Amino acid sequence: MCEGYSAARPIALKGPEFGPDLYREIFNHSNEPIAIISPEGHYVEQNTAHQDLLGYSDEELLGQTPAIHMGREAFENIVSELAQKGVYRGEAVSHTKTGEIRHIEISAFTTRDGSGDPICYVGIKRNVTERKRAEEALRRSEAELTDFFENAAIGLHWVNSDGTVLRANQAELDLLGYSREEYVGRNIAEFHVDQEAIEDILSRLQAGEVLSDYDARLRCKDGAIKQVRINSSVFREQGRFVHTRCFTRDITDRRQTERRLALQYAVTRILSESADFIESARRILQV
Questions:
Q1: Is residue 29 domain-shared with residue 105, that is, in the same domain?
Q2: In the beta sheet, which residues pair with residue 233?
Q3: Radius of gyration (Cα) for the chain, nearest Å?
Q4: Which of 37, 63, 105, 214 has the highest CB neighbour number within 10 Å of its CB?
Q5: What is the distance between the alpha carbons of residues 102 and 94, in angstroms, rounded to a whole number?
Q6: Is residue 140 part of a domain?
Q7: pTM of model > 0.85
Q8: Domain count, the chain
Q9: Could you give the dihedral angle defined by the CA atoms of residues 259, 260, 265 and 268, in that order, rounded to the nearest 10 degrees?
Q10: DSSP string spanning 73-96?
Q11: What pLDDT shows up at residue 28?
């Protein structure tokens, strides 16, 4: 370890068994990668964990600075902060000897002699590559979910257990003609024509049911009525109702077509069954 370095005084520990050899053992066997850097910025010593992290042997690091694996800019930033504050806490991206990327947390401090001059710098690293990968995977997953929600061709909305709209995508807003401010934060019941329908929907969802092809009627901003088909389930955390996941499909045109075809069929049937024109007309008016 660095020459002239005086370890911190141990609390209530005295005797030869707590001398420099103990600190040498701690340095050598620590699971955390540790390196000693000279005041000029060159590697003096590394422990086994540090060698395992980056793949450089002691001989390969001799005369080198940490810029060999983290780049000059990152290294100079660390040196600058150590010079100003005496300590550094931060993260860096390093490359192993074989070129693999390692995300590392760095905790470094300056060791000084009795005159206050730097003896060496001690850097303790922690490999956080897997954590960074997990965070990036989570970020991508959240971005994909947001993109799916916002850009889906079908209407989507979330409501909480009391029916307050928490979130709605553009397709749903376009379907009903409301702005986001006019829709989100309001109770979903305000947009349902049939109050018994939304009460039934929320009751069944709260009971743990999954709704498939539930037909309902929604009121648009301009007063028009949309026939919709709803598919919905509940997202729960530890059994607690967090929000619904509702897909809203517009079936207004389909319903109108079905009614028109049904009317045409009824008229055709009446005309085929009756030879009396007046009677046929009367029955048609009743359809």
A1: yes
A2: 245
A3: 36
A4: 37
A5: 5
A6: no
A7: no
A8: 3
A9: 140
A10: HHHHHHHHHHHHHSEEEEEEEEE-
A11: 87
Q: Does 1 fall in a domain?
A: no
The backbone torsions φ and ψ at residue 177, rounded to the nearest 5 degrees and listed phi first, read 85, 10
Q: Quick check: is 4 in a domain?
A: no
The angle subtended at Cα 152 by Cα 149 and Cα 157, nearest 5°, is: 50
Indicate whether 7 pLDDT > 60: no
Contact 160, 241 (CB under 8 A): yes
Band (pLDDT 50/70/90 cuts) for residue 70 is very high
Question: Are 45 and 100 members of one domain?
Answer: yes
Please name which of 155, 181, 148, 183 lies closest in space to residue 169, comparing C-alpha atoms: 155
The CATH code of the domain that includes 213 is 3.30.450.20
Nearest to 230 by CA among 196, 186, 189, 198: 198
**pLDDT tens across 240-270, in order?**
999 999 999 999 866 656 566 555 555 556 5
Helical packing angle, 277-286 and 252-273, nearest 10°: 160
Do 219 and 196 belong to one domain?
Answer: yes
Strand partners of residue 212: none
CA distances in angstroms from 47 to 52, 68, 265, listed in the order given: 9, 17, 88
Per the CB < 8 A criterion, the answer to whether 233 and 246 are in contact is no
Q: Kindly tell me the number of DSSP H helices and DSSP E strands found in the chain.
A: 11, 10
158 lies in which domain range? 152-250
What percent of the chain is predicted at pLDDT more than 90?
74
Name 22's Cβ contacts closer than 8 Å, sequence gap at least 6. Answer: none
Residue with tokens 């929320």: 202
- The pLDDT score that the predictor gives to residue 9 is 46
